[in-house]
Amino acid sequence: MFKIPFLDLPPLRSAAGTVRLPGSKSISNRVLLLAALSEGQTVVRDLLASDDTAVMLESLRTLGCGVWRDGDAVVIDGLGSRLRAKQAKLFLGNAGTAMRPLTAALAVLAATQGGEFEVSGVPRMHERPIGDLVDALRGLGCAIDDLGNPGYPPLRLRGPSALALDAPVRVRGDVSSQFLTALLLALPLVAGFEAPNPPEGVPPARGGPAPGRDIRIEVIGELISKPYIEITLALLARFGIAVKREGWSAFVIPAGSRYVSPGEVFVEGDASSASYFVGLGAIAAVDAPIRIEGVGSESLQGDVRFAEAAAAMGAVVQTGPNWLEVRRGAWPLKGITLDCNHIPDAAMTLTVMALYADGPTTLTNIASWRVKETDRIAAMATELRKLGASVDEGPDWIRVQPLRDWRAASIHTYDDHRVAMCFSLAAFNGLVTDAAVPVRIQEPHCVAKTFPDYFETLFGVVTARAEDIPVITIDGPTASGKGTLADEVGKALGFGVLDSGALYRVTGLAARRAGLDLDDGPAVAALVPTLELRFSGGQVFLGPEDVSARLRAEATGLLASQVAVHPEVRQALHQLQLDFRRLPGLVADGRDMGTAIFPDAALKVFLTASAATRAERRYKQLISKGNSTTIEGLREDLEARDERDKNRSASPLAPAQDAQLLDNSALSIEASVEQVLNWWQKRRPF
Ligand code: DC
Known about the structure:
- The radius of gyration is 30 Å and the shape is elongated.
- The model has no long low-confidence stretch (mean pLDDT 94).
- Helix 1 (25-37) packs parallel to helix 3 (96-113) and helix 16 packs parallel to helix 19 (567-578).
- The chain is an alpha/beta fold.
- The strands form nine sheets. Strands 27-31-26-32-33 form a five-stranded parallel sheet. Strands 3-16-18-17 form a four-stranded mixed sheet.
- The protein contains 23 helices and 33 strands.
- The protein starts with 5 loop residues before the first strand and ends with a helix.
- It binds 2'-deoxycytidine-5'-monophosphate.
- 2'-deoxycytidine-5'-monophosphate is lined by residues 478, 500-501, 504-505, 557, 560-561, 564, 590-593, 641, 645.
- The site of 2'-deoxycytidine-5'-monophosphate has 15 residues, from helix 15, helix 18 and helix 22.
């Protein structure tokens, strides 16, 4: 996958429509691990496809689980609590939801069945604490080696070793609730422990082999992020483990507990991801609501309660069992003070909503932000300030003042999906200031951690003014390399591409097929609205037919050049071309993109190359496709087309007055792309 270095969001104005959320990350990775530890096969539906689930799936494969796809579902053939691989090195990226529970499960399995496992991740993962979990597991009797800084991954989990299962397992709950989740997921593996065929060297559990025993987990300190523990308990129940809970301070896994696959599991939508669309609705859904499908009043995830926080800021929220509808209520939004311990991830979204409020917004009890994908309090404060906002922060709180004088900012995302998604909401600044500014999101691909097509989904439900959507035009004569340059520039910026020549080509082709006289402008123009054109994945369809290859033929180019002389035809194709101006931006190539179609384009490039160079390039292209031709013949054709394109009265081929001229006769494609991107960067306010 090509990763663009940044994505520029033009000022956005309104929102309406329906989004379907990707599966919840927390539920996805828990379900995968539970399925892997269970007896039997589990069909997992609506699983989130993302970086974090990919590392979990890969780890399960390494551990000997059967993992395969069946249509949209993932099927896991569980280990039934028995290790198939006794040694493995697992790379877990930056997935806390994989690191913590796998550490606990493998530590316990290595202790009881023997084995040696290493778990590691990206550098940031090695800065995220795991010491409280390691301490709890060591207290239980697991052998764990620090391979880096004590208290942080990477770790080695060794066994066999004797487990002290009679005493309560104690774990701190005030840094991350994932430590408790990890123990809750791992300890059922030994609640029914009998070691039917104890491997050589495996000592019996202290207290002698038993038919199983209650395992008690005690939480030290105030447990944070309780809703995530509720998810864990609900999923454990689905896999056959009925944990008994004493308030939030003690949990008992009953003797004889054993993982059993429920057969099929549906993963609900990601409630944290819903927060961006709830925020979007609160800010910009004026005429019609934003409907969010995949979470609702029956969701397991605590982050659905984000909707209440949004409502407190003024949003109008309606809920159904698995949907939410949100629209703007109060405007400006209302500043709030909120303890966010129950919605730690979603609450980040409130800090950007706060920019649109009538007074300060203060979020408290959010110390856990500091140990997430990045230090999220510092990250949000730093990046909000770049927009011009006034922000105060403390060890476990943040306060954001409303913003009126917005600055165009390039937002650093710290490889944190939520930072990237949150700041997309800053693009609505045009709703509170006349001087609307674009927002640059650096490394936007980091959203792949939980929501790989977040920006596409966002663009599907928001509007911008056409004049705010940036256009780069690349005009020039035949075979100057416009198409390639436009494609590459589009790819680098994440912009769409309009190959306007294809529209003239398809018109020429269709006119010829219809037996029209190509010199009859009005007749050819009348054909245009009847064409069933579809552009999909770089291909052009005319009705059901993929005509892409036909369009590229030299003969079709000549037909195009013939029909293109008619003002009626150019007029008939005008609106079609304007319709390509879509979020987040457009690169348009042709003859009159900068002069007639997009005269307000922010960057206009006129690309030339000598006739000799162009003939040679086209020659190589055609020969490589197995067509026979001569350079001389090609050059004559090119020059004839240049003449016609330049000398016709309707939109003749000529550089726009404000165009940048680029002669690429002696330039590589990369050098041309770089030149255009440099010009582009100079025109950006970042
Ligand atoms: O860029 P191309 O070779 O695909 O264009 C084919 C013909 O279409 C070209 O000879 C002139 C015409 N054309 C045009 O007149 N205006 C455009 N914007 C694009 C193409």
